[in-house]
């Protein structure tokens, strides 16, 4: 305790009176006439220090070092006067008073400097508590805003597909794991018409990512301002708007990757192997969402091999975690193997889609800037400086992992949001570096200014999207991608009405009639919104092809396809004629624009043979 710092300094005065001056132990003796008297047989000052040291040693408070920590004053060279009886009594009384004062000092409150030392942990706890409160406020406000706006977008095609897939449970699917379809089915069972309930998992994932970003800033050594700035950076990034706008695989996958990055950074600081087991659980869950995680883990492995910490490889908990993750992925991998690894075949399809919609690899930098936002770009630049220097040397493996993932997306033509799970790493690192580079008096002002600007921009985007104005006609995939971000998908009612009209015109024999669609979006919409009595719906597109094909007795097909599909349909059916055409100039391509509903009869082969020929992974909107 700080009492030890003051005890020896209080021994210097024969009367025990001293004015304490900080933890250094220096004091000022009170001027008294009795200071010149001494106890017989000892020099002045030595008698009192020896007596007090004996008393303190007997009471068990301090040892010899504490009792003699104050250097004795130089011995007087003049001759000591004789001591009479009265002097002896006075000196003995002074010694008793000093002993009592020292004993009282041990039970008295600590000196001001000692109290300050005691308050340091308390202040640290208060600061940490304040940071938690601020991050909680940011996450809560973001959750409220995102939840309020969650129903403004209409159903996305993938969401309709997830609901349909939930009613066809399997260990794996063509382009995702089983978890998202199960969540979609649960939401549909609880509240069939609520888009808010359906999108709650995505909103929750976005909010968790905000908190994880702040937690990463703490692992990187950031203070309160850095953690708050990191949380604001993610909460106001354009990506979080996309992440929470619909139920999707990347909404949950990116947050899971961020959690794994945080656990890795925390392990570097604490070396607690239980974190590796927690990471195994997170990885096991993420593998039920998407099979992209092995690529991310490979990027982490490259980073550790280049920059360390290589000690992690010698930890048994790491290999136990790898075993847990492998066991969890086994059912999905077996499903992929039995179905010819469709996940790998999707790579070429995604590359073509990205090239048409965003420019592919050439457009990747623009897409990354669009995901990060203005504040995010600043933080990423600061993070690059921090990882290049000594500031974040222990966590440099995360920077290498980011670089590996960027190369992977650029080479394979993958989707830009494959990198989104590592945005919290860059935001947190950049916030720490930025707050440390700024002078102390500027840090709070800079953080508040950046946060205010980002919040205003984010609120503007959230309040303006989706746009209420009539959508503009689109003629290219790039324009279609922009329209989806601005206005979402529209036209489901027109599609259902057109197919219902075509079914009525095809005749009453629905037992031999089925509906086939060009895209899995169309099939999922008809399965979700179709009226009672509508013929069964099938689609040879992507995952919907695994849900079944028309039965052998089916002779009439209502085919929802593009305007130019007649030539291909005549190779499959003997009779092909258009029944209904959907071509709203402002409609959504593939839903209520560039769509023709055909009546086809007389299949040229059995459905068991025709189905593999019709199956495709291409999502063709007709433009």
UniProtKB/TrEMBL annotation:
It holds the Pfam family PMT_2. GO terms for cellular component: plasma membrane. Residues 175-335 form the Glycosyltransferase RgtA/B/C/D-like domain. GO terms for molecular function: pentosyltransferase activity. Residues 32-47, 76-101 have a biased composition (Basic and acidic residues). It is found in: Cell membrane. Residues 1-111 are annotated as: Disordered. GO terms for biological process: lipopolysaccharide biosynthetic process. InterPro entries: LipidA_mod_glycosyltrf_83, RgtA/B/C-like. It is a multi-pass membrane protein. This is Glycosyltransferase RgtA/B/C/D-like domain-containing protein. It comes from Nocardia cerradoensis.
């Amino acid at each position: 305790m700080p009492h030890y710092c003051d005890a020896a300094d209080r021994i210097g005065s024969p009367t025990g009176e001293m004015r304490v001056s900080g933890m250094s132990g220096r004091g000022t003796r009170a001027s008294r006439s009795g200071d010149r008297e001494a106890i017989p047989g000892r020099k002045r000052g030595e008698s009192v220090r020896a007596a007090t040291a004996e008393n303190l040693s007997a009471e068990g408070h301090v040892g010899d070092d504490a009792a003699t920590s104050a250097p004795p004053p130089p011995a007087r060279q003049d001759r000591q006067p004789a001591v009479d009886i009265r002097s002896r009594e006075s000196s003995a009384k002074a010694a008793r008073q000093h002993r009592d004062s020292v004993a009282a000092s041990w039970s008295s409150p600590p000196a001001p400097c000692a109290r300050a030392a005691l308050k340091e942990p308390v202040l640290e706890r208060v600061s940490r508590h304040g940071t938690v409160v601020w991050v909680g406020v940011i996450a809560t406000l973001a959750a409220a805003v995102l939840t309020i706006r969650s129903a403004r977008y209409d159903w996305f095609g993938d969401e309709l597909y997830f609901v349909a897939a939930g009613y066809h449970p399997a260990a794996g699917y063509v382009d995702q794991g089983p978890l998202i379809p199960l969540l979609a089915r649960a939401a549909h069972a609880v509240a069939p018409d609520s888009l808010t309930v359906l999108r709650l998992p995505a909103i929750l994932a976005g909010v968790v990512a905000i908190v994880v970003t702040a937690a990463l800033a703490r692992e990187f050594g950031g203070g309160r301002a850095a953690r708050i700035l990191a949380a604001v950076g993610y909460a106001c990034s354009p990506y979080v708007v996309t992440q929470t706008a619909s139920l999707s695989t990347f909404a949950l996958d990116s947050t899971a990757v961020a959690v794994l990055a945080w656990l890795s950074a925390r392990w570097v600081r604490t070396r607690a192997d239980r974190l590796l087991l927690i990471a195994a659980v997170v990885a096991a869950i993420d593998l039920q969402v998407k099979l992209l995680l092995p690529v991310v883990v490979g990027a982490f492995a490259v980073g550790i091999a280049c920059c360390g910490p290589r000690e992690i490889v010698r930890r048994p908990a790491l290999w136990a975690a790898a075993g847990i993750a492998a066991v969890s992925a086994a059912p999905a991998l077996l499903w992929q193997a039995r179905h010819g690894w469709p996940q790998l075949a999707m790579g070429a399809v995604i590359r073509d889609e990205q090239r048409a919609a965003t420019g592919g690899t050439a457009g990747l930098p623009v897409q990354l800037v669009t995901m990060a936002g203005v504040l995010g770009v600043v933080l990423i630049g600061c993070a690059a400086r921090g990882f290049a220097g000594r500031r974040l040397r222990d966590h440099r493996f995360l920077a290498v992992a980011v670089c590996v993932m960027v190369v992977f997306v650029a080479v394979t033509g993958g989707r830009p949001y494959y990198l989104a799970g590592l945005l919290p790493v860059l935001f947190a690192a950049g916030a720490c570096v930025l707050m440390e580079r700024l002078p102390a008096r500027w840090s709070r002002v800079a953080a508040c200014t950046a946060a205010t600007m980002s919040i205003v921009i984010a609120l503007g985007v959230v309040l303006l999207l989706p746009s209420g104005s009539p959508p503009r006609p689109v003629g290219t995939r790039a324009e279609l991608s922009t329209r989806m971000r601005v206005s979402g998908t529209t036209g489901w009612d027109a599609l259902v009405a057109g197919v219902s009209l075509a079914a009525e015109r095809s005749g009453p024999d629905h037992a031999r009639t089925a509906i086939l669609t060009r895209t899995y979006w169309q099939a999922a919409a008809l399965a979700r919104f179709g009226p009672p009595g509508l013929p069964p719906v099938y689609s040879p597109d992507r995952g919907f092809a695994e849900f079944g094909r028309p039965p052998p007795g089916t002779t009439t097909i209502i085919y929802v396809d593009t305007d130019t599909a007649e030539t291909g349909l005549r190779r499959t059916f003997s009779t092909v004629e258009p029944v209904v055409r959907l071509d709203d100039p402002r409609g959504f391509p593939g839903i209520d624009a560039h769509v023709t509903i055909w009546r086809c009869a007389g299949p040229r082969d059995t459905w068991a043979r025709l189905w593999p020929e019709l199956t495709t992974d291409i999502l063709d909107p007709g433009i």
